[in-house]
Amino acid sequence: MGYGTALVRPPSSRLAEGLLTYLERVPVEAGLARSQHADYRQALADSGWSVEEVAAADDHPDSVFVEDTVVYCAGLAVLTRPGAPQRRGELAGTERAITNAGVPLARIEAPGTLDGGDVLQIGSTVYVGIGGRTSAEGIRQLGGYLADRERTVVPVRLGPVLHLKSAITALPDGTVLAERGANLVDQSAFGSVREVDESAGCHVVPLGGDQVLIAASAPRTAELLASLGLDPVVVEISEFEKLEGCVTCLNVLLSDR
Ligand code: CIR
């Protein structure tokens, strides 16, 4: 039996023009990006997910980072309002895919902003990064939608990092992974924290059971996860990392795990 639907969105041929906040622009190989994305999609399918495509949006260089456009929580899809105005044209395609999937939909309205990359769900707690792309008003609206769904929304002030999930994510047991010495978020907000030595090592997606999606750029952390009895699902995403993307932002899992 599968876990549910995983949304992905094919990379735009203009991926190389995507937004950059902290990294220098370097050449992106469009063909390699397409094949890495196909492998990423296959990894989700092999892990038990039914992969559905959001229609490509070739005019939107960052559209492959579909996570930023919708937050799925407790049976509700909240269409976001990305903090970067250039990305708001990505929403229409995501909305169609959510409607096709038959999931009830709500939306963050102006002037609120919220990026899905800022939302980290651990059990019934929904941590939301504030200070980068997501505003206090965006968090307030998300909290309103989730209030009657037994979720607690906890804002987390961000340091110099694009999204909350660029700084930390969590293992299946809720342990937060953070990069040693990086100090990008106040770790005291979280219960149990394990520090890792690779920046990409703090980007993981629990895929169900012991499976944990992780980038090939974090080989030592993948080894650590295996030593903890987890099953690392390793994907090469170098072309997306050049645009400040990571394993989390290339999918939206329409399931509460
Ligand atoms: C952006 O700046 O919006 C994109 N270049 C990268 C978005 C990555 N999204 C994510 O980590 N959730």
Protein described:
With 257 residues, the protein is α/β, with parallel strands linked by helices. It has a single domain, classed as L-arginine/glycine Amidinotransferase, Chain A, CATH 3.75.10.10. The chain has six helices and 15 strands. The strands form five sheets. It has a three-stranded mixed β-sheet with strand order 2-1-15, covered by helices on one side. A three-stranded mixed β-sheet has the order 3-4-5, sandwiched between helices. The relative contact order is 0.18. The model has no long low-confidence stretch (mean pLDDT 96).
Quick summary:
This protein is α/β, with parallel strands linked by helices.
Average pLDDT number: 96
Q: Output the radius of gyration.
A: 17 Å
Second CATH tier, the architecture? 5-stranded Propeller
Please, what is the CATH homologous superfamily? L-arginine/glycine Amidinotransferase, Chain A
Order of helices and strands: EHEEEHEEEHEHEEEEEHEHE
Topology:
Layout: E1 4-8, H1 30-46, E2 49-53, E3 70-73, E4 76-79, H2 91-100, E5 105-107, E6 119-122, E7 125-130, H3 136-146, E8 152-157, H4 164-167, E9 168-170, E10 176-179, E11 193-196, E12 204-208, E13 211-215, H5 219-227, E14 231-235, H6 238-241, E15 252-254
The structure holds citrulline.
